[in-house]
Amino acid sequence: MQRIVIVGGGAGGLALATQLGKSLGKKGLADITLVDAARTHVWKPLLHQLAAGSFDTHAEEIEYLAQARWNHFKFRLGSLVGVDRHNKTLQLAASYDEAGREITPAQQLGYDTLVIAVGSQTNDFGTQGAAEHTIKLDSPQAAKHFNDRLINACIRAQTVPRAAGSGRLTVAIVGGGATGVELAAELHAAARVLANYGFDHIHPEKDLQIVLVEAAPRLLAQLPERLSESAMRELRKLAIEVHTNEKVVEVTADGLKMASGKVISSSITVWAAGVKAADFLRTIGGDDPLETSKLNQLMVNGNLQTTRDPSIYAFGDCAACQQPDGTWVPPRAQAAYQQAMYLTRALPRLAAGQAVAPFVFKDQGSLVSLSEYSSVGSLMGSLTKGSFFVEGQFAKLMYWALHKQHQLALGGFKKTALITLSEMIDRTYRPRIKLH
Question: Which residues are in the FAD/NAD(P)-binding domain (predicted)?
């Protein structure tokens, strides 16, 4: 029986394990194993809501063990630390609890086909002080840590005299991409709700100052300019302070220093600028490493096979895949989802020695959520040639639909319908902001 090991339980990795489990594992045609360092999955585009406290992790987290049981694959807890390509084995590090007690020992897994989908992490570009003084919003753990810092800072701000002309609490966000823009809007909405839960002095315009810093000339620099203009217009309505063309050269415990000489004070600093693949991917093969890009991504061919080993695949943010037109697949959730669906169909055929057409990314556009206030986006190819701009309630509906597509891939129609119903019920009695 073919052994397929998938490392990384993100949006793409978990979807692939689920679909392969249904199509191959259920029929006994393959042994599917998913490996991840965490025990639960959270959809990464929701991390800004988790950070702001407007997202209930217990309602949204997917237990890998339960998902594996329901969909005919296995789950192993652990972090990938090495691959022996000659013997086709991978090494997993021991895992530990918060007290330092060992949960699982270091272990070794054999494979016939290895799929690496470990995602990406925030790239601080070696900026002085960034590692010590910022929270990098690239994991559920980091988002929860930020939320704890935010609630504690709000409680603290209740007793700290306000300096003239400044907010009691300042949150600085480095990076004006989708994550930074979405977090800024979500924090503004959260501050309004917090005032109803005893934080009567945390007013989003007067007492909470939100600062967004971007090195590029405009926000959402990778997206159409019209989206940037719309997002900037919405943020200005919310009195969010935006600095473009400002490169951060140093982060301190209480602020940011810019290349221009400008200094911005900050109570909490979030780094949301740039991504890269994990450093360990550069040496994953030991003396015979796989080929990687400057951002540590594994180089893959059109079938998503690594360039130096056809039995090892990589996709999502951790893979560098060049398209026939010379462009590269972007590090987006929709790309990882499309690649997962491609591999669901391609892996059985490639294992049987059959030819498979190369993967081609189909850009369906981009959507940016501005919390309860609005959403903006551009949709491509589905209704018109080229792209068309959407905003407001329709864009919010499309953003919601993307989340439902992810839930459908993991749980099917019936389960997604029940989850949606429970979300509607929850809104009637749960606090809108998580306070612990």
Answer: 3-340
Quick check: helix, strand or coil at residue 42?
A: coil
Whole-angstrom distance, CA of residue 59 vs CA of residue 46 = 13
Q: What is the DSSP letter of 168?
A: S
Q: Choose among 375, 340, 382, 374: nearest CA to 359.
A: 340
* Tens of pLDDT, residues 9-42: 998 999 999 999 999 999 999 999 999 999 998 8
For 79-92, the pLDDT digits (tens) are 999 999 999 999 99
- All domains of the chain, ordered by start, with CATH? 2-120+277-351 (3.50.50.60), 130-273 (3.50.50.60), 365-426 (no CATH)
Predicted local confidence at residue 414, as pLDDT? 75
Name the burial class of residue 73, with classes exposed (0-12), middle (13-18) and buried (19+) by CB atoms within 10 angstroms of its CB.
buried
Of the two residues 202 and 246, the one the predictor is more confident about is 246
Token pair 């409680």 is at which residue? 155
Q: In the predicted model, what is the mean pLDDT of residues 119-146?
A: 91
The predicted pLDDT at position 432 comes to 45
As given in the structure block, the two tokens for residue 276 are 């890269």
Residue entry with tokens 């003084």: 133
Task: Please give the helix or strand (H or E) that residue 109 lies within, else none.
Answer: strand 107-110
Report how far residue 269's alpha carbon sits from residue 364's, in angstroms, rounded to the nearest whole number: 32
57 within 8 A of 144, measured Cβ to Cβ: yes
Whether the predicted pLDDT of 433 surpasses 50: no
Question: Distances from the Cα of 429 to the Cαs of 80, 200, 270, 426, 433, in angstroms?
Answer: 41, 21, 31, 6, 12
Q: What Å distances lie between residue 349 and 18, 79, 352, CA to CA?
A: 18, 29, 5
As beta bridge partners, residue 114 has 5, 312
DSSP string, 93-117: E-EE-TTS-EEE--EEEE-SEEEE-
Q: Taking residues 375-404, what's their average pLDDT?
A: 56
Contact by Cβ (8 Å): 318, 281: yes
In the numeric block, the tokens 């057409």 are attached to 357
- Full strand arrangement of the beta sheet holding 263-265: 248-252, 255-258, 263-265
- Using alpha carbons, list the distances in angstroms from residue 225 to 5, 45, 213, 232, 368: 41, 21, 18, 11, 13
Which residue reads 């601080």 in tokens? 124
Indicate if the pLDDT at residue 163 is higher than 80: no
Residue 389's pLDDT is: 56
